[in-house]
Amino acid sequence: MNIPSSRRRFLRSTSALIALPFLESLGFRRFASAAAAQAPAKRMIFLGLGWGLTTETWFPDANQPGSNYVMPKGLEPLARHKADFTVLQGLTHKMVNAGHQGSTFWLTGANQFAVPGKSFHNTVSVDQVAAQHFGRHTRFTSFQLDCGTYAGNSGHGQGLSLAWDESGKPVAGVNNPVEAFHRLFSSDDIPLERRKALLKKRHSILDTVLEEARDLQRGLGKNDNAKLEEYFEGIRDIETRLGKDEQWLEVPRPKAPIREPKAGLAGYEEIKLMYDIAAAALQTDSTRVIGYRQPVDTLLTSLDIKVAPHDMSHYHSTMGEKLDASQRRDLANSELLAGLIDKLKAMKEADGSSLFDHTTLAFGTNTRTEHNGDNCPTLLAGHGAGLKMGHNLVLPKGTPLCNAWLTLLQGSGVPAERHGDSTGIIKELIA
Asked: Is the pTM of this model over 0.90?
C-alpha cells in the first residue's frame, strides 16, 4: 500500500475504501512521531449577529481597560472563560452606514457604493481570505452555516451567509443542523465509479459552455464583456469546487463524533446544535474555517420573548420590555458561546493541547444597537492567532474593524498585507 498524504491508510477493494486506524506495526510509529512534532493546524470561527447588542450592559466599562475590568451583565455567563477572550471597543467600518445589515459587510468592510453605476458592491470576507490559505488541506475549504429564511428577520441584510468570495459575490450557507450534519458526515451511497463519471460529465459540460462563451465574447461590446467576465469567474469557481470534489473523491467522510440532530429545532436549541456541529467539523479536520450567520427572531421566540427583533434593537425609545428583551438575548448568546468554548477546550490535539489553543473565534456584529454602526461589538477568543486574551481593549474611536481582521490573519500565519479598509494591525492586541 502506498502511504497517502492524509493522516490514514486505506484498505481498497473493488467496491469500497475503508479508513484504517493508526497501526504502529504498519509503520505509523514514525508518522505519529512526525505528526506530534508538527504543530496542530490553525482554525477560525466567525459568529455573526444581527440587530446589535445592548450597549449599556454588553460592553465592559471603557474606564476599566486591561484585565482587571468588572464583567458586564451581558457577558456574565462567560465569566469562567474571562482569561481566554478579549472585548475590543472603538472599532468601526467607516464606509458602512446600513443599520439593517448587521453582517453583510461585517467581515469585508467594503463600501457598497464603491463601483459607479451600481447600488451594491462587496469584497472578499476575512474568513474566505483565511480559507484560501488553510482550505487546501481539508475536504471543505470553508464551511458556512446560516439561518436561511430567518436572515431578514434577524437583521442580516444581503448575503447567503457571512461569507463573500474574491469577487464580492455571496457564498451560500447550510440552513439547518440536519443538512449540516449530513454534508459533513454522511457517506455517499453512489458507487465510486458512478461519482467519477458524474464529475467527468460536469467537466465536459463546463468545457462546452466555456467554448461557446468564448466564441460569443468576440462580438460583444465593453459592458457586455464585463458581464461575461463575471460569468467566467463563476465558471472558474465551479471548476475549483469540482477539483476539490475530485481530490477527496476516494477519501471516506469521518465518523460523526456527535449524534444526528433532530429536525425542526429553532432558536436557542438550533444555535446550540450548530455550535456542536461547528466544533465537530473542526475536531474531524473536515474544515479549518467556519462562519455562522445566526438567527435572532427564532432565538427570541424560543426564549418566550414577545418583542419583535427590530423593535428590540430600538430599546432606547421606550426601554422597559424592549430593553429587557435585548438583555435576555445577550445573556442567551453568552451562554451559548460559553458552551462552545467549553467544547473546544475539551477537544484534544495529538500533542495533548486543546483545539481551543489553536483556534481563534470572532463573535460580533456590524451594528451596535438601533442603526448605529460605530463601536462594532467585537469579542475575540482562543489562542490560535497569538492575540492578547483576558482584556478589555479600548482603542481610539474610529479604529477600523478590518485592523482586527488583519491582525487575526497575520497572527494565524496568513500572508495578508491589508484587508478591507484596514490601516494596519492592532499592536495592542498582540500577546
From this structure: no
